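Changelog-adjacent note: as of this version, every example in the card shows the full chain rather than a window. The one below runs 147 residues end to end.
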Amino acid sequence: MPSAKTFFSSQQVKQIEVAIKSAEESTSGEIRVHIENRCKADAVECATAVFHKLGMHKTALRNGVMLYIAVRDKKFAVIGDQGIHQYVLEGFWDIVRDKMLAHFKQGNFTEGICEGVAMTGAELKKHFPHSASDKNELSNEVTFGKK
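Full-length structure tokens:
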């Protein structure tokens, strides 16, 4: 199994980053994709730890969302900060996760992540539409863990 940094080609990473940029164009929300090798705990716990490590909880409106993938342990999670979490319907993150999983089962990891990003962006737009004063608070670059 390839490592987190080699699991996706540079072209696939760029495709994910373009999806993030596109999804964020109509919202003040922030989306990050983080990829690492291992997650020894529950995927939500690992995602939450990385969420805080990357400072995603420090956005002005607390409307950051992370798509977290541990490639070697075959775990992933989608989590949102309290600003967006209070608005989404119960089970929304599970719906995003399930759509991504359907792609992953077919070996279409990039497509799964991009669909998850698009779904997240559409939901963020409903509750946090883009305004002229919005600034991109977090990088759109895919981040990689050392685990």
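Structural remarks: The domain at 4-127 is CATH 3.10.310.50 (Diaminopimelate Epimerase; Chain A, domain 1).
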